[in-house]
Amino acid sequence: MTSRQRLLAALSGQSTDRVPIWLLFPFHATPYYVDVRNHPTYRPIFEASKGRAVMLDRRNLSVPLFTPNVGQRHETVKEDGGEVSRQILEHRGRKLVAETRRHAGGTTVRKLLTDEEELERYCSLPVLAERQRIHAALAEQFPRYELERAEFPAEHGAMMLDLGEPIGPLYGASKLEEYAVWSLTHDEIVRGFLDRVMEQKRVVYRWCLERDLADVYFLVGSELASPPLVSRATFQRWIVPYAKELIELVHCYGKKVIQHYHGQIREILEDFVEMAPDGLHTIEAPPTGNCTFTQAYEVTGDLVTLIGNIQYDCFRSYTPEQMAEAVRAVIAECRGKRFILSPTAGPYEPEIPHAMVENYLAFLKAGWEAGS
């Protein structure tokens, strides 16, 4: 099987000739991962991965969250001997301001939303839902995406679109201590905002699906409103219905969905079964997480392909022998079940030591040999 055939079979719950391996390495550069294809430190790993690992070229197409009458700007100024960067939203004479101050003593951050009044103001801003404007914003990005898709070697895997979920903007804008409280005090206001953002997401997803832009869609919102930060009941209101609808929409076009979740997943595994993705990354065993693969399969059965779960820190701390042993143990635990081997996180460090390179190579070698 080619890597692409192996990937799509695994996400469909079909048998494969060996366990698929996914390094989370993108083929094209992204703002959140190292450009591994062109970085000299990562190049030996990337070259080795071409024969043994699945590639998912994670791309982002975005549109403005708010309508054009919401003023948005960024400014950077010198103040009090330091540098201050501000993100400013303005609508009908009222402002919301996020601020990052860098000075000799360190960096301080003020989130856009720090109290109830700011939350209410933010959730009242008009969300862009006009189909024509959304389509125009996406069409502007389409030529570059097409060039990347043409360059991507399809036999190695698939294009993967990360288009966001309704919770993303609110989480990113909020002071988390208050965000947790708002799940109790402002649930109705938040859900009203999420409903309006979902109107935009429906248009964005349909535009991409109708043009057959990707075989896999990556959903990363579930970890942004889950226990222990908020209750399971909040997760079931702020995450489940929106993700479930998006997954059903993707499936209507015959495409696959991988959901990403870091953290304490055991309590909410049944909710992922309800959302019904094709793959779930990443199941984290103790002490980092609270769920082994064995425990996860007791809930998911053969309904979801589980993906993981060698911790990123292990690539820093293990010897190659320890890495190979860990990979063999995970494959043994998951043998005969729906499974893709992967690290828990992607390559975000611009420089890694030689020992970490050796561990990536040991991971690939052990996964290829033990997974046959």
Structural account:
With 372 residues, the protein is of the alpha/beta class. It has two domains: 3-65 and 127-370, TIM Barrel, CATH 3.20.20; 68-125, no CATH class. 44% of the residues lie in helices and 18% in strands. The protein has 14 helices and eleven strands. The chain has helices spanning 3-11, 43-52, 116-123, 131-151, 167-173, 176-185, 187-210, 232-238, 240-252, 269-275, 293-300, 312-317, 320-334, 354-370, and strands at 55-59, 71-79, 82-91, 94-103, 106-110, 157-161, 216-219, 256-260, 279-281, 305-310, 339-343. It has a seven-stranded parallel beta sheet with strand order 1-6-7-8-9-10-11. Strands 2-3-4-5 form a four-stranded antiparallel beta sheet. Helix 9 packs parallel to helix 10 (269-275). The longest helix has 24 residues, at 187-210. The N and C termini lie close together (12 Å). The model has no long low-confidence stretch (mean pLDDT 96).
How much beta, percentage-wise? 15-25%
Would you count the extended β strands for me? Answer: 11
CATH fold-level topology of the largest domain: TIM Barrel
CATH architecture of the largest domain: Alpha-Beta Barrel
Largest beta-sheet characterization: 7 strands, parallel
Element string (H = helix, E = strand): HHEEEEEHHEHHHEHHEHEHEHHEH
Helix content: 40-55%
Order of strands across the main sheet? 1-6-7-8-9-10-11
Please mark out the parts with pLDDT under 50 across 5 or more consecutive residues, or reply none.
none
Supply the number of structural domains: 2
Number of helices: 14
Structural class: alpha/beta
Q: Over all CA atoms, what is the radius of gyration?
A: 21 Å
Mean pLDDT: 96
The CATH class label of the largest domain is Alpha Beta
Shape: globular
- Give the end-to-end Cα distance, rounded to a whole number of Å: 12 Å
